[in-house]
Amino acid sequence: MIADADDVVVAYASVAMTGIDRSAAPEVLAKGAPDPVPALLLGRLAVDHRYANVGVGTALAAHVLATAVELNHKAACRAVVVTALTEHARTWWERFGFRPLAPNEPDQLDLYLLTSGIDATLRRMR
Ligand SMILES: CC(C)(COP(=O)(O)OP(=O)(O)OC[C@H]1O[C@@H](n2cnc3c(N)ncnc32)[C@H](O)[C@@H]1OP(=O)(O)O)[C@@H](O)C(=O)NCCC(=O)NCCS
After folding, report:
1. Among 79, 109, 100, 70, which residue's Cα sits nearest to residue 18?
2. Which of 25, 36, 98, 99 could form a disulfide with 30 if both were Cys (CB 3.0 to 4.6 A apart)?
3. Residue 37, ligand 1, Cβ within 6 A
């Protein structure tokens, strides 16, 4: 959660561990992974519209992605997954390298980013 100087919430994100059905996962995610594939679910991420387009969402997303890397040092966390709220939000996630979980359904809103690709993503986000 990010709050302003008056403690009013400006943005928040929620995460939980999840498992992805290995048989339905893209090859790059499933290869050598247990079933289900351990991942970090980004349940919600939202920014107060008064603070839109000043980088708050990106900063919060970067924090969540860095958390996945940190988790992966202690227990397997193969990817971060998110269900984009809308098609607009999907394009926003794609900026960070998120890709559709079902490769044959490129328009779907269930997305993933491999934890192994996060360091490169974080460098681009700075
Ligand atoms: C999506 C959301 C989190 C973005 O938050 P934000 O703080 O405004 O985003 P940032 O300021 O970090 O990023 C804005 C940048 O993304 C770009 N952007 C915004 N929407 C975009 C989209 N749909 N596709 C591509 N780029 C987009 C902006 O042009 C801006 O680019 P710039 O950095 O080159 O100027 C916010 O609009 C929101 O809370 N939406 C409602 C909830 C939601 O959709 N959550 C995500 C889905 S779970």
Report:
1. 79
2. 25
3. no
Ligand 1 centroid, distance to 22 Cα (angstroms): 30
pLDDT, one tens digit per residue, over 71-100 is 999 999 999 999 999 999 999 999 999 999
CB of 91 shorter than 6 A to ligand 1:
yes
Residue 81 near residue 40 (C-beta atoms within 8 A) = yes
Q: What is the dihedral of CA 58, 79, 123, 7, to 10 degrees?
A: 30
Query: What pTM was computed for the model?
Result: 0.92
- The pLDDT confidence band at residue 59, using thresholds 50, 70 and 90, is very high
Q: What is the pLDDT of residues 8-23, one digit of tens each?
A: 999 999 999 999 999 9
How far, in Å, CA of 60 to CA of 9, rounded? 13
Angstrom distance (rounded) from CA 80 to CA 40:
5
CATH fold of 2-125 reads: Aminopeptidase (3.40.630)
